[in-house]
Known about the structure:
Blueprint: E1 14-17, E2 39-46, E3 52-59, E4 65-70, E5 76-80, E6 83-87, E7 93-98, E8 102-107, E9 113-116, E10 119-125, E11 130-135, E12 142-147, E13 153-157, E14 161-164, E15 170-173, E16 177-182, E17 188-194, E18 200-205, E19 211-217, E20 228-234, E21 239-244, E22 255-257, E23 266-267, E24 273-279, H1 301-307, E25 315-320, E26 325-328, E27 336-339, E28 345-349, E29 364-370, E30 376-383, E31 390-392, E32 398-403, E33 406-411, E34 416-419, E35 446-448, E36 454-457, E37 462-465, E38 472-474, E39 483-487, H2 493-496, E40 507-508, E41 514-520, E42 525-530, E43 536-542, E44 545-551, E45 557-563, E46 570-575, E47 581-586, E48 598-605, E49 611-618, E50 628-633, H3 658-662, E51 667-671, H4 680-696, E52 701-711, H5 713-721, E53 730-734, H6 740-744, E54 747-748, E55 751-754, H7 756-760, H8 774-779, E56 793-798, H9 806-818, E57 823-828, H10 838-857
Amino acid sequence: MIKINNTFPLTVLLIFSVAIGYGQSVNRKITTADYAKWSTLQDEAISPDGLWISYSLQYDYGADTLFVQNCKSDRKLIFPSGNNAIFSSDGRFVTVSDPEKGLILQEFKSGKVQSFRNVSKHEFFAEAKYLAMLKKNVSSNELQILDCNTNKSYIFPDVQEFTISREGKIAVSTFHEVRIIDPAENFSEKTIAQDSAESFKNLCWSENGSAVAFLQQLPKDTLAPDNHRIIYYNLTDSKRYTLDGSTNEALMAQRIIVRLSKPALTFSPDGKRIFFAITTPHKPFTTEQVEIWDTATPLEYTQNKYRGNTNYEPKLAVWSVESGKVMQIGTVENPKAMLTADKNYAVCFNALRYEPQYEYDAPADLYLKNTHTGKETLILQKQATSIGMMGTSPDGKFINYFRDNNWWIYDIEKTKHRNITAQIGIAFKNKENDNSGSPTPYGSPGWSADGKYIIAYDQYDIWLLSPDESKTQKITHGSKNKVCYRICTNLDQENKTHNLDNLFAPKFDLTKGLILEVLGDNMASGYYKWYPNGSLKKMLFKESGINRIQKAKDAEMYICIEQTSALPPCIILLNNSGTFSKVIIQSNPQSKKFDWGQAELIYYKNKFGDNLKGILYKPANYKSAKKYPMVVLIYEILSHGLHNYYNPTEYDSMGFIPSNYFLNDYLVLLPDIRYKIDDPGMSALDCVESSVNAVKATGIVEENHIGIIGHSFGGYEVSFIITQTKTFAAAISGSAISDLIGSYFSYASNIPRSNTWRFEGEQYRMTSSPFNDWNSYQRNSPLPNAKYISTPLLSWAGKKDPTIPWTQSASFHMALRRLDKKSIFLVYNGETHTILTPELQKDLTIKTKNWFDYYLKQKTVTDINDIP
Length: 868
């Protein structure tokens, strides 16, 4: 059962209606007792042959259920409390994890069902002829391989780990040996490593399956981290090679290590080299009785303790197996290393070079290092290193990077830099990103598979740019009608995984065309197919929310989700030519029996003349002659959620769901906010008041009964806005910063850095420290302006919030207490930035509703200390 609902990450008013009530033949009004009927549709998947789909319906008030459904017939398999459906590659089977039965194996044609307990990992292989299952038992673990055709099982005891090559051979490790199992040879076993003292782990196959590599744990000592040796076994000639860091001169007694969230071993494309990580051994980090915080260190105390000494930083190295040559790629001078796609080069840098600095990711001087010869060349100085700023071509010949508001190419062979977008006359810098800090691009999803083009985005369109500047082609034309085109990057499994040791290198086969996700200025959405001849064909594009597309691996069939604010999510089956689409499952069909609200886009301007949008939800059974109370929900840009469908529920991690309100005779407004640098609070005030005034001008709102709510940065905005205006009769602020200067200098031990980057490089949109512009920090801070508040405030925070200390909200509450202002502060012990415990979610949701009902509807409540 899932209880976490993270649904949010003026002059002229024009209203464009995009969703009328779903099923206008209304039966009755929704009550709280009806909420239990609603479920959330998620975890959808399509089988490789496109004939089956799986999905889960998760209930806030009951048991979850997984369904597997045939796309052509009405056949449906139901798995109460099931999860993680995985289809076999041939589409004959599906596995489902069940908390009581274990792993369920269902055959579609015969209907045969088997279950296997204590399975911790499973995998179909050999074109789904076999199912491998690692079973974790109390006394001993075992690998069971089931022949899916004959139902015969093969059991291998004491297996701790297994991995399967593309050819179907299985490498397994026990505590003290590694074996190769060959199903093609009647499951013959061959021991390739054995040691009674130390264990083996981190098995890894080469791409062509001709070699396997793994680590052997070496004896522990008083130093950290644990040390290992690498063993490489060549299946072609049955030769075994070993690399031990403690005896290899090139490694200078450095330790071969396992890093968190990164592969322990990686093969080169030809399978003849192994990339791995090393570091200098050191005493284990401990908690000192006296911490020495020194302004001279490159990083703040906690970060500096773990990352301030590059000797101890993990560094990439490479082992050429047959020659025995070992070379460090990362060094003490430049410990960070990211490999090009062919792994012949690495971009190396020292992230400490420009510290201290006050953005999240430091710029760096980039060196290109040949991973064969060790030759290193400086190619860029003070280059941004954050995600999305660099990449490599799939052939490894070029490095792309964003700099000076343009895309550049570094030609490795010719050692030449080229600015490939300056002459186009189109902005590739993201002008919609109004955060402080370094400029960012609209993005680059990757390269063409043949390496002929880097793909880049402007505000609306997709460009193919040749690295030698010989050809520039815009393949979409969205700017004319303000329609944004982007490539669906998640359809190819190879592009879904990103190894952090590698430069970003997704690739797209242009000869097969591209599936594009499309978003209109009016929030219409869907998918188009781009063909190599330059034509575009609509697959599905409507005035609704269409997303989450997936492709059947071996068929030109797709599934996606469609919803509107009034139509619950459904799964659509479609093809890429736009000639076929079908609703496979409509969630929450009971919603047709109830009255619902409708969402509309509103258009307004702030005082600078910026054109802005927002969402206005009108109440269920709305009457134009009637005025309604209104709640304003704020957090940066929200209009993209126009078609989001919100289940009514008492279980929300932030205590507020729009449907709970527009189903209860409230207007709900979600305005967009555009920011001016050094004025985040004032910008929010301007945009929010402008949007509220636009709604007021229609005459449908009770002007004395308007509330405002926000969480996190939105909570900060709420706390600030009510210091500047008397527009709001009630306010709710969750997990909010109240003192910008205090927050700038705050430091939490569980986030080992201060908040400076949030201000000078991100959301709080300041260009410098308070010492350079004290007035801007004070002007935009709720606490110094608290005396001007007349709006009753309900605030809340989790006492274990690692993002914003709960004491920020406590300080604001104490200020309001001293000023004799109406304020109630809820502190949730054990909770973090959002509320995760179901009963506490319900508590916050009910208290939020009671607060607004009391102040905006004058209802009597029996909570929040009975609100005097």
